[in-house]
Amino acid sequence: MNNNTFYSIMLQACLSGTMIYLITIAIIFFTKRAKNKEVTTASIVISAIIIYGLVFTGVYVELTEDSSVESELVVNDSIKQDGVKANTLPKYERIETEEVHYANIERFVIKVLIKDEVSKQQLIDISEEIVNETINQRRTFHALAIHYYTHMELVNNRASLGIFTYAPNGRWKDASEAKSDFSNFLGDTTELIEKNWEDKPTDQEIRMYQDYDGFEMRDDGIKFVAEKYNISEGEAKNHIDRVYHWIYNIK
């Protein structure tokens, strides 16, 4: 709960308490001639104490409810797959957060590195963690996309493990429709990829692809890689294609 809400609640409580106190004094004053003045006064004082208790109990309840809302899991259940959460998650590293804003719309792209074998369901669970961490850090945003990579050297290419999007209606383009409480946000898992990890390129193949990627002409790049690594052009092409297929999920 923010400070403005807290101060507003406390002000209402103080005003209510002051009003009750003044009313109590007035009633006591006008009942001075009552035959049983002590009983009347005691009853009024007890009533005032009860009302005070109710007022501050209301304050406490509202504070508690607001606090619990902040700690709730805010990711929509639609990002879960069959309602199952993986027991253990592989290590992952948030390597970059890119701001993709326009006008007053705040959109973020988070790039995440996962070197170990990971399933699509685990990617969904990791996405859930990252979304909640981001909400706790930033409180408000209009759309969030998480790009997953298997190699640090490939982060400027397409996300090899796919993309998870958390946005209004699950669509990045609907960012302008975002509600501040995330009530219309959905998680889109359709771009996450279930990889065949036997096809994962070796570190040397990644280096070959980097050397090749600097050439505008494909044949020139293959020839360069073949000469640098002392292999045939056919072998160089096969290694390069393995990395390309891994990045773009070509089977």
Topology at a glance:
Blueprint: H1 3-30, H2 37-71, E1 93-99, E2 107-113, H3 120-138, E3 143-149, E4 162-168, E5 185-188, H4 203-213, H5 218-228, H6 233-248
Parallel strand pairs: 2-3
Antiparallel strand pairs: 1-2, 3-4, 4-5
Key phrases:
single chain; 251 residues; alpha+beta; 5-stranded mixed beta sheet; 6 helices; 13% strand; disordered N terminus
- What is the first-to-last residue Cα distance? 50 Å
Q: Based on CA inertia axes, which overall geometry fits?
A: elongated
Q: What are the low-pLDDT stretches, counting only 5+ consecutive residues below 50?
A: 1-9, 54-74, 77-83
Strand order of the largest sheet: 1-2-3-4-5
Notes on the protein architecture:
- With 251 residues, the protein is an alpha+beta fold.
- 48% of the residues lie in helices and 13% in strands.
- The protein is built from six helices and five strands, in the order H-H-E-E-H-E-E-E-H-H-H.
- It has helices at residues 3-30, 37-71, 120-138, 203-213, 218-228, 233-248, and strands at 93-99, 107-113, 143-149, 162-168, 185-188.
- The chain has a five-stranded mixed sheet, with helices on one face.
- Helix 3 (120-138) links the parallel strand 2 and strand 3.
- Helix 1 (3-30) runs antiparallel to helix 2 (37-71) and helix 4 (203-213) packs across helix 5 (218-228).
- The longest helix has 35 residues, at 37-71.
- The two termini are 50 Å apart.
